[in-house]
Amino acid sequence: MSTATAAPAGRKSSALLTFYQSSIGKKWVVALTGLALVGFVIGHLIGNLQIFLPPEYINTYAQKLQSLGPLLWIIRFGLLAMFFLHVVNTIALVRENREARPSRYAVERTKRATTASLTMIISGLTLLAFIIFHLAHFTLGAVPTTDIAVMDPLGRRDVYRMMVGGFRNPWVSGFYLISMALLCMHITHGFQSVFQTLGLRTRKLAPLFSITSIGLGWFLFLGNAAIVLAVLFRFVK
Prior knowledge:
By secondary structure, the chain is mainly α. The protein has helices spanning 3-21, 23-48, 55-66, 70-100, 103-112, 115-118, 120-139, 159-167, 170-197, 206-232. The radius of gyration is 21 Å and the shape is globular.
């Protein structure tokens, strides 16, 4: 490779790194990883809602995912990496904003901040803990309330019985419900910020994005809460 060819590539890498280290770059990383994670959460919920159908539906769905083999673990680690980037860059932006904020305006701006914005970091870290627990619970079988080795009559992993056994525990169900409430709050605030970062939020579209973010947050919370509560109170057996 010639020096002339290597130099533009080096400048391009340097430019990307400089952009990433800037506040705008961090906001773009937070926005894009946030959108990807929201897409995953929606798909995950739709799949899990099959718990309200006969067991073979969700067991077939789970078998199709397991058939991906190593690719499934690549997807899982990719999602964890995106979540890590999302949280780290959110924390960095909050620190930068606090350092740049004049002290005389600190109290005033804090009062004007919404409850959701003040708890974004806490909710994000709690959700990270939830994701790790969720993987340990239903993927690794590290939580005593769930036996991941149980099979259905067709010899497939019986995800239906795993979910029923897992959510029958009130402590496990309580942690899931708290995590889903935080997710609702996190998305309701963050989803609006995504469109502002991407330059799509205008005065005319702002009400639409606000309603969409609130509706999305409640949809995810109520959908996941319905699964947990239906099992906990034995509507799903």
